[in-house]
Design goal:
alpha/beta, Rossmann fold, 8-stranded mixed beta sheet, two-stranded antiparallel sheet, 9 helices, about 30% helix, about 20% strand
């Protein structure tokens, strides 16, 4: 299999972000969804609106999110809209909570856990293409959060998140907490959900960017995240989400930054690379890549 291209720049700026998107050579057409994490109130590591504004406007994108499965300040729609506003995203672009008006099931062609379907916000039907714009960082449950997590858990509705976390055993967010004992099954379920979303949009209507800054061991969904212990790395982009997350993972593992230890330990502890392994097995992308620095 031919290696996938992953573009990289150390320039974490609005201009750097536009430059790396343009390097992908893909025009996202029609109504474009820009999937980010809007961040849990109290946290401060989510993508800075000032950083992403120019790119989102360049592609005439709509920032999209879904409600959380945990009972934080983005569990219900009203409070989620408040968080989106307070975090500054309404100031830079149109925003959409995709499961505000319900959810739909989309088919999954491959996999063994999710019963052949993913549960996503019903507003997904309003979009023709998607830019998966992710803050790459650690995660308390997934080990790390990048393109694959943003594409799976991020696009899933509140109930869809429960479906993935419970490895296809419940759609009830409150019931899921008693069903999170199968770590590898959860990681495999995330990969299965990715296949569903990519098949829905078609690969040619997708693009992926990971911004590796504020490299906390905790996710943007954490209201009190651990402060980063290693320095920012840069921006990575690819048309292959598997290669992209593999590349970012490798960049952490192979970093000479002594502050990487806690993040590396978190990724190892949660077997984080297994999501990438499974996504490759499902044919979503390639783990072999070449880096093109711009």
């Amino acid at each position: 299999m031919k290696k996938s291209v992953v573009y990289f720049t150390k320039d974490i700026s609005p201009k750097g972000l536009i430059k790396i998107y343009e390097a992908l050579g893909r025009e996202l057409k029609g109504k474009v969804a820009v999937k980010i994490s809007t961040g849990e109130p109290g946290g401060h590591n989510f993508l800075n609106p000032k950083l992403i504004k120019d790119l989102v406007n360049k592609i005439d994108g709509t920032i999209v999110e879904c409600c959380t499965a945990y009972r934080g300040n983005r569990f219900d729609v009203k409070n989620h809209w408040k968080a989106i506003k307070e975090h500054g995203f309404l100031d830079i672009a149109p925003c959409d909570i995709m499961d505000e008006d319900g959810e739909i099931k989309i088919p999954i062609a491959k996999g063994k856990h999710l019963g052949g379907f993913d549960i996503v916000g019903s507003h997904i039907k309003n979009y023709n293409s998607m830019l998966v714009l992710s803050h790459f960082k650690g995660h308390a449950m997934g080990g790390f959060g990048g393109a694959l997590k943003n594409l799976s858990i991020g696009v899933a509705s509140r109930n869809g998140k429960a479906w993935i976390h419970s490895v296809g055993r419940t759609e009830n967010p409150d019931a899921m907490w008693g069903l999170i004992d199968d770590q590898d099954g959860f990681l495999e379920s995330m990969a299965e959900a990715c296949e569903g979303v990519i098949s829905y949009f078609k690969p040619e209507n997708m693009a992926y960017i990971n911004i590796a800054n504020r490299l906390s061991i905790d996710c943007d969904c954490d209201s009190n995240p651990h402060e980063p212990e290693m320095a920012d790395i840069g921006i990575f982009a690819s048309l292959d989400p598997v290669a992209l997350d593999q590349c970012c993972y490798d960049a952490i593992i192979n970093s000479k930054d002594a502050g990487k230890k806690s993040l590396v330990d978190r990724m190892y502890q949660k077997h984080a690379i297994h999501t990438v392994e499974t996504a490759f097995e499902l044919g979503i992308g390639n783990r072999e890549y070449e880096i093109v620095e711009i």
